[in-house]
Amino acid sequence: MFYQIYPRSYACAGSSQGVGDLRGIIDRLDHVVGLGVDAVWLSPVFCSPQVDHGYDVSDYYAIDPIFGTMADFDELLQAAHDRGLRVLLDMVPNHTSDQHAWFTAAVAAGRGARERDWYLFRDGRGADGAVPPTDVLGSFTQTPVWTRVTEPDGTPGQWYFHLFTAEQPDLNWLNPAVLAAFEQIWRFWLDKGVDGFRVDVADHLTKDVDRNDVRFGNDLLTHDADNRTHEVLRALRSTLRGYEHQPTAIGEIWSGGAAYSSDDEFPQTFGFPILKAGWDAPALRAAIQEVLADTEPVWVIDNHDTPRSASRLGPARSRALTLLMLGLPGAACLYQGQELGLPNVDDLPDEVLADPVWQRSGGTDRGRDGCRVPLPWSGSQPPFGFCDDEVEPWLPQPPQFAGFTVESQRRDPTSTLELTRRWLGVRKQLVGAGFQWRDEAPDRVHFQRPTDTGTIDVLMNLGDTSIALPPGRILAHSDPKPPDGWLPPDAAVWWEV
Predict the structure, then answer these.
(1) Contact 376, 401 (CB under 8 A)
(2) Domain around 463
(3) Residues 103 and 147: beta-carbon distance below 8 Å
(4) Which CATH number is 124's domain given?
C-alpha cells in the first residue's frame, strides 16, 4: 500500500514561502503510519527551477533548497524506516530542466558537438534555419515542441525538442552516455537506502522527432517491442539487483503497462484504466480485467495530475471506488488528501494559478492546481495547520476545508479518514492474487478474494436502486452508515462469506 506525498502541499515546517518541505513531512509522518500504508512515494524533491514544480530537474544529486537539505532528506529516510515505511523517489528520465548542466553544456558547445547529442537538437527549415524542424505541437501545452537556441557566437542556431515546456528539453535516449548517467544516479540514491523509484512518463523515451505527419507530440512516441525504451528499462532494472533492502520501481505508463511490465523491466506499473473508466460497471470490469491479465499493478484513482475523485465522481462514489480499488489484487496507491475525501478546488483565482499548463495554454486550460492545494490539518480557517498562521500557503485553501481537516475527522468515527483506516486494516486479510468475478449485472461490480480463513466478497452498486446483500459478516463499507441487508446506490461493501 503506497501513499503519494506531493511535498509542496503536504506540510510546511519552516518555509516562509508557504511551500511544504521535508521537515514538514517528518513532523507529519505519523499520520501516514496511522493510515496503515507500507510505503510513501515523494513527488520530485531534486534541485529544480520549479517551472513544472520539480518535474524539471536541474540536479538529480541534490535536494532543492525550497524543500530543505540533504541532511533533512537523510533524516526523513531514517524516520520513515524507523516506522516501518519504505520511501520511493520520483525519477524523471524523459527530460531535464534547461538549467541542468548537461543542457547548458550542450548549448555552449555549439552545433555538432558531442554534448548536443545528449538532447534532441535539429537544424531548422528554410535557408536561414528560422522555421522549426517540424510543425508538431506539444500534447502538454499544445504549443510548438521546438525552441531555438542562440549559438556561442551569438547567431540564431539549432532547435531542441521538448514534449512538454520549453524549459524541459527531452533527453536523447539513443545516446548510451545518457543511460550510463542515469544508472549512476539510481545507484547514488539506492546506496543511500532509498527503496526505489516511481518513474515519470516512462513510456515516452522513444520518439521519432523528425516526423511531420502528426499534429501532437504524443503521436511521435513508439511502443513497439524492440524500441530503445525496453533496453533502457532493462538496464535500469539491473541497478535494483543486489541490494539487501530489495528496492522496486513503478512505471507511469499511460499507454498500457503490459508492454513495459516484465521480469526484467518494471516490477510494477500503475493500473490507470480504472481511473479512466468513469462510473460505468461494464467499463470498470473491462478495465480491471485488462490490467489483471497483463501487469503487476499499482491501482490508482487519484494523483497529482488528475482532478480529485471526490469532485470528479462525487464524494460517495469516490469512497465506493476507493474501497473497490483496495479489494483488487496487487498494490494500491492513495494520493494525499484522498483519505480525507478532499475535493478539488476548481475556483482558484486566475492570478494564483501556477501550473505551466495554465500559462502555456494562454489561460484556456486551468491545469492541475486544483488537486494540489495544501492539505488541511487543523483549525477552522486557513492555513489549517499547513504552515504558520502568518504565512500564506503557495496556493490558497478554501474556507470549506475546515470540514475536511485531519483534526476534525479524527474525532468522527464516520469520517472518510476513519473509514479509510479501517479499510486498510481489513485489507491485510486478503491473500495473494486470487480473484474471481461473481456477477456481471450492468448495475454492479462484484468479485471475490481469498483470505486465510475463507473469502471476502467485494460489491459496488452503480445502479439507481439498492441491492440485497446475502448473509455474511460486513467487514468494510463506504457509506458512513453500515448497510442493513441492502447496499444503497453509489456505495461499496466487503463481507465475509
Answers:
(1) yes
(2) 434-496
(3) no
(4) 3.90.400
Cα separations in angstroms, 20 against 10, 69, 396, 437 = 6, 13, 13, 43
Three-state secondary structure call for residue 414 = coil
Instruction: Say how far apart CA 491 and CA 279 lie, in whole Å.
Output: 12
CATH number for position 457: 2.60.40.1180
Note if the pTM is more than 0.85. Answer: yes
Number of separate domains in the chain: 3
Same domain, yes or no, for 199 and 108?
no
Please list, in sequence order, all residues whose beta carbon lies within 8 angstroms of the beta carbon of residue 382, skipping any fewer than 6 positions away. 393, 396, 397, 399, 401
Locate cell 486557513: which residue? 382
Q: Are 394 and 354 in contact (CB under 8 A)?
A: yes
CA distance 301 to 82: 29
Question: Is cis: bond before 383, omega within 30 of 0?
Answer: yes
The whole-chain average pLDDT of the chain stands at 96
Residues 80 and 126 in one domain: no
How far apart CA 181 and CA 96 sit, in angstroms, is 13
Q: Is residue 169 part of a domain?
A: no
What is the phi/psi pair of residue 271, to 5°? Answer: -90, 70
Instruction: Examine the domain organization and report whether 74 and 156 are in the same domain.
Output: no
Span 32-91, pLDDT tens digits: 999 999 999 999 999 999 999 999 999 999 999 999 999 999 999 999 999 999 999 999
Q: At residue 178, does pLDDT exceed 90?
A: yes
CA atoms of 93 and 254, how far apart (whole Å): 15
Residue 204: pLDDT band with limits 50, 70, 90? very high
Which residue among 111, 127, 161 closes a domain? Answer: 161
Find the mean pLDDT for residues 290-312.
Answer: 93
C-beta of residue 233 within 8 angstroms of C-beta of residue 266: yes
pLDDT band, very low/low/confident/very high, at 293 (cuts 50, 70, 90): confident
Half-sphere CA count of 100, side-chain side, radius 13 A: 28
Helices (H), 335-494: 356-360, 406-410, 416-427
